[in-house]
Amino acid sequence: MNRPRIEVANLAVRYGDVTAVDDIGFDIASGELVTLLGPSGCGKTTTLRAVAGLETPSGGNIRLNGETVYSASERRNVPAEKRGVSMVFQSYAIWPHMTVFDNVAYGLRVRKLPAAEVRENVQRVLGLVQMQAFADRPASKLSGGQQQRVAVARAIAFSPSVLLFDEPLSNLDAKLRAEMRVELRELQRRLDITSLYVTHDQEEALAISDRVIVMNGGKIEQIGTPEDIYNRPRTRFVADFVGSANLIAGKVRGPGSNGTLLFEAEGGVQLEVVASDASTERDTVALRTSYIHLGSMPGSHNAVPGRIHRRMFHGDFIQYVVDWPAGQLIVRRPPTELFDEGSEVTVSFAPIHCVLL
Amino acid sequence: MPLVVLVCGALVIYPIAFLINESLNVGDPSTFPPEQYGFDNFTNLTDDYRALANTLLVSCIATVLAVIFGFLQAWILTRTNIPGRQRLERLMELPYYMTPLIGALAWGVLLGPKTGLVNQAWRSLGAPGDLFNIYSAYGIAWVMALFEGTVAFVMISAAMKSMDPSLEESSRVLGAGKLRTALRITLPLVAPGVLSATIFVFAEMLGSFAAAFVLGIPGRFYVVTTEIWQATLSFPPDYGRAAAMGLSLFGVMLITLTIARFVLKHGTYTTITGKAFRPREMDVGAMRWPLLALAWGYIVVAVILPLGALLLTSFERFATVILPQMHFTLANYQTALQMGSVGPAFVNSLILGVSVSTIGVVVIGVLAWIIYRSRMPGRGAAEYVIMFPQAVPRLVFGLGLLWAWINMPIPIYGTLWLLGLAYFTVFLPLGLRTIASVVLQVDPSLEECARVCGAGWVYQMRTVTMPLLRPGLVAAWLLIFIASVRELGVSIFLMGPNSKVIAPAIVNSWLSSSSELSAAMALIQTATVFIAVAIMFSLARRVSGVTQ
Question: Model ipTM?
Fold first, then answer.
């Protein structure tokens, strides 16, 4: 009975010779917030627009609430206005020639709701985004943050079954973005609305999502919960793009102690790493910068001497560039752990944090 | 909707095809289709070098003058700290609304041999002969230079404004003096803009008609455009020769304009980022009063003096500046509005202006949407075809239209219908450019959002697209209206005894009757245009006040 709200299968979008989206598929369950994450040009926005009906795919199937809205084989393509989805645009797309009220009421008036009901609904959603006081303002007189709230109110006013977000926070300044992130997630949970969210900001994707779909070059690299994506990246691209990681080159040398594998990095450094399968083909270990300890940690498996090469104070953390036998490591430590440049340290990290790629 | 594109494309291509066909007609020039084809019309063009030499002479003088005017004006208004620059910059638009026709009439009134107001004053001071004879190559060049000076100003000041002041500042910081910076940095950066303005003005000069017509015909001084006109008037009319001349002129203009665009595109170092810099102003010290006088001098000579002369003349029984001989009267205006076919010419022009711009805005609005928003195949080609009339000298296009519609089984030659159709065709580029600039400004997601909210195409057009395009549509309406009321090159070929329009009527009155009456007519036309311009700017201010 719990059929996914959004089902995308074998979706492909091509413009002439260029393939923007290359045979991808995913499902989104009711009430879930799933993020499409990737660098610009990876096909994430194209995928979102194909779901909205604003982009015509070249192949595959899209179902919304169990109903096929696009199917290449059935030659079916339901126009955007008949799909019952709603969308928050990157540019907000607030109509400058209308008031805030008219903007939010648009979807309700299109559906020919009686005036009283329109008014009631608009008041309600403006309340949800704390914009009641602005109802009669011309929409062109709003700040960026206010426009963004109105855009969200407009998108949820007509109770759509599915909500699509196209980089909704990318035009806000950093502080406001962090605040709106919390608010959006709060709102989405409260209304229990199925959402597909596009962003290139990995931090935002990890913070806001139930699941993250990492895309690159029109293909899906990995689908998983934020913890999954961060702790167990499956490809070099995911490890590099999401969070900050050191990629250590080397070779698998055989089994280690307690079910780990022995990995020999450049410079002869022996590391114990974990791997889901015993494949010995792999030649890179991904290691998160914040999972590395400096100082001495007795009893740990991977402890290697190093020297602080450079220290950069970032406020919330300190970033060290550490020389060690296998080259250089980037290490992030809390601002309480202060080492001077040039001082000798022991670099250590748990095998479980060494992900073999 | 593709039908609209096809019809508009046909309207543009049809006259040109006829023109080419006729230029190859070496049989009886007035039969259609031609009995014999050949290149004689083109080879015969070399028989008479005079018109060509005259055209080059006038174009060169006018181009040099116009670029000097434009450069000085652009430099003074963008780079110096003279007082009241912003107002002056706005006033610089005025010469453009004056048209070469009005300028030619006014300078004819001022400096015509014997009767010109200045020449009269000159004689009354006891000097022998005329101070200056405007009915000459120099006169035509002078009038055109005053008009084209504004065009050069716009292009050169754009080049000066798009230059990042930090380019000069870094030269100063690295130790170069003011002069060295000006010669090594500023000049090379502005040079491509000046060069492309020069070529552009020259190309426009080659195809210009009105001034050469008003000031050249009385003194039997012909340039290529007036020669084309003359060829169609001879008996029997030599349409083949006219068409060959027109096409050659078009070819030369097309090559020149292409060079101008190439220079602007590839020779410019200042990348167009869409960012407007406020260039660093130079403190010119005490020089600022002479420079201010120079800047105002251009406005006075290009606008105030000619309009003043026309105004004075239009209220006089006989044009004169000698006080005791002045007799003031309103009779000229009375005649202008009543007289035989002149009154109707005003009415016709207004009817054409209103209807062409109204229909034009609707059709061009749809065209702009198809070309810049839809994904219809071949929309790039459609844009090219629709912008095409822009490259054809108006007079040559008029000739093509004349020939095309004379030979059409639809009996609209000599009626307002044909004039309307012709205006619509030649103003397609103007309308498309104006509306396109607004269409391109409207973020597509504003329309997409309406669709996602559940609106169908019609609902979306009505509630979102049309309201957002309104400022552009209003501007396009007014620009087409203004252009229609001023139109000369096409009208002069296509108007019939029962479909007279104002610009050719003014020219005819000038050549056949009195300068006083012509002045009154010209002023009524100018006033109509200025009222439209005033409405346009007040609307523009109101609209931009709302959206900002």
Answer: 0.83
